[in-house]
Amino acid sequence: MWFDGPQRPYMNAVDEDAARSKFKEREQRLHRYGPPGFVREVVNLLIAAGILVLLVFLFRWFL
Known about the structure:
Elements: H1 16-33, H2 37-62
């Protein structure tokens, strides 16, 4: 059985408690501040493009 997945990211650490707290800190930071800058910008660009396509589709549908 393999434990190298996201289920147990602190499995191979020397100090399991320190690794667990560091993992929780990273998870809380990701939850609080969102993904890193590049990922955030790509997601915002995709959302903006989707809204633009939706507006064009609605505009053509009404006319």
